[in-house]
Each structure stands twice: as structure tokens, then as C-alpha cells.
Specification:
5-stranded antiparallel sheet; about 55% helix; alpha+beta; 18 helices; about 450 residues
Length: about 450
Amino acid sequence: MKTLDHIPTGKIERASTLVKTGLKIGGNYAKYYTKKIITPSLDREQLNQDNAIDIYDGLKDLKGGALKVAQMLSMEKNLLPRAYVEQFSLAQFSVPPLSAPLVRKIFKTYQGAYPEQVYDTFSKDSVNAASIGQVHKATKDGKTLAVKIQYPGIADSIKSDLALVRPVALRMFNLQGKDSEKYFKEVEDKLIEETNYILEVKQSQEISIACAHIPFLIFPAYYPEMSNQRIITMDWMEGKHLSEYVKAGFSDAHGHILGQALWDFYMFQIHSLRKVHADPHPGNFLIQASKNLGESPKLIAIDFGCIKAIPDSFYVPYFELANENCLQDDALFMLKLHDLEILTPNDTPQEVTYFKELFHEMLRLFTSPFNKDVFDFGDPVFWGNIASLSERYANDPKIRKMNGNRGSKHFLYINRTFFGLFNLLFDLKAKVNVNAYKALL
């Protein structure tokens, strides 16, 4: 993979990169419509593929907020065409890293010393590069370490990056005008938090300690004395990224064990800590293979930059709404829809009827795991129903005519968390004891 000797950091330079990307996309559409004149039955598959590649190619060199949004969208497997999901998923842990000379220069700027002056050894080449930072392997006093270094200018460009991608997001999610501001502010605040590595180390230590008792789950140790606002030093953990582990093949028993650890980890955070690791993509979990015959693999949780606090004002009605009894009680269901800002006082009777039916159908499907003793996340019927529902509403012309600003701002990261969690459990084909986490509280 090529390395980068420069990252655009100024607003004008970053904007010009996205303008060039926009011109490429315009050219792709021109080619598509020209071909469609000749072949009216032509589908959009090649157009989606060309656009996805060009968008990702433009974002991967910018890194930062724009690329992070692409990474977030890659988890929306039932929202975006497959071509976009496949390309944007590369942002999780496989983007062009910075060159060794640039890393050395950046490290000196952040730390006041060169890497070789801080560590006994330091790999000049990155072992993992993502949207906000890249990881290098190092050693110190006999310990093998992972050193995450933030890309330059990322923290200062979050607001301008989001302003550049905002028009696309408004159209994609049918958000309207000033009412959409709360959602963009939520994303902006979380992305700015992710650039604060001092906060990440603090969050990592707090959650690691609180969840240390969960079976088959382990965490790296973190070293504040070798970390700062833009550098994190932690234990190097041996293991495969969850996506690599899945591709290599695994037994049903191991899938169930790892899936149970993942489920218990998330349920414990949500119900005990009232905060959650809100970035559940495959790049943030490693699988440590069993060392002895008959021993189970372990799940390693890393990267606690995106932690979502869950206020009681959201937590209580959210999980009441997930209860099967609420779905069967029309008056209670309507009350919770208003509590969670899914329905608003300004809705027309047509909007109330439409969104009540939409969310009832959606919630009955998406909350079905919470209303079972054991749930099979590998069930193709469950995922087929999700895909069918998503496609039906994505193509429903009524929804475009209505105000798409639905729900509390907290839905953004909580829904993202559950979508990501469900997809990881699907990858593991896990059968989960839904209520097992209660014994850990």
C-alpha cells in the first residue's frame, strides 16, 4: 500500500479535494445516462461502483471527519448499495498510512522527542491505519506496545469536513433545514471527542476495569505516562481483526462463545454503566486464538474513542419501547413515540398515522432479540426481513414528502451501536443467551 507524505489540512485545500471528487462523480453520471440512452434496461450497479471508488479515493487521502462519516455509513448495510458498503468499509482499518519520515516529524511535534527517544524500538511503518490515526508497534522495558498517532490537522478540520459532507447527508437521510442541526451537532461533538486521546485513555481504563469480569473478554493496558492529546500507548494485543477471523472460518461453538461475550459486553455497558462503546465495527475487535486444544478463543476490545453516554431521559423510554407489552398497548406505544421525539406536536394527522405504522413495524422487527430467551443472529429470515423492510421504505415515495427529522439526537449513536452489534453477531453466526448479562450486573 502506498504511503502519504502529506495530508491536506487547510479548509481550501480539503474543499478542493472534494470538489475534484464531485467532478469525477458528475462524469460518472454523464457516462451512465449516455449508456442508458442506448440500453434503457441498464441498472445502476456500475454507476454505484464507480461513484463508491471515486468517493473513497477522495476521502482516504483527506482522512479525518469526512472519512469517519464514510466509515459510519459502511455499517449501514441495508441503507447503502453494496458497492458503497464494500468501499467505505475499508475506512475501518485499511487506508493509506503516513510515510515514515512524516510520522517521525509528527511524533516529535506531539511528544517533543523522536520515537526512538521514547521507546526502545519503534516500527517506522504503520501496522494499521484508519480515519483519525494510525498504529505502530514498539517496545519498552520488555513490553510490546501499540502506539496510536493522530493525523495532523484532523481535530481542527472536523467542523469544516462535516460542513462539506452535510448536503449529501441531508439528501440521503431526508433531513430538513434547521431541524437537522441537532443531529449534525451530535456527530460533530462525538468526532471532536474522538480526537481527544487523553479522554480516550481515561475512557478506555474506566470501561476496561468495569468490564474485566465478563467471561472471554480481555482488554489491553493503557499507559498515560507515554500518551498525550494526540498519542496513545497501550499493550500490543495479538489477534486477528474480527472480519479476518470470520473469513478464515470458525466452529459454531466458538462463534457462540465470542458472540455471547460481545453481547454481554454491550448489555453490561448500557444497563450498568449507562454509556457504551458506540463504534462496533470489525476493526475495533480482535480475536485471540485459543492457545491449547479445547480452550476457547477470547474477544479483545480496543479503541474507546467513541463512547456514548445514555441519559435516563432516553434510556427509560427507549427500552420501554423495546418491550413487547409496549408494542401491544397502542396508548403506551404512542406515549413513548412522543417521549423519544419520533412523533412531534407539529405532525399532521397523515404523518402521525404513517410514522406510527412505520415505527411499529420497524421496532417489532429490530427489538425481537430483546424479547427472546435465546436469539440466533445468524438466522437468514431475520436478516431477510430487515433487508426487505429497508428496501420497501427506501423506495416509498411518501417518506420523501414528509419531514424526515425523527427522533431524539441520542438515536444516532444508539442505533448505530445496535446496527453494528447485530452485524458483528451475524458475522459470528452467534446464538446468544439474551438475559445472561443480568448475572454480571
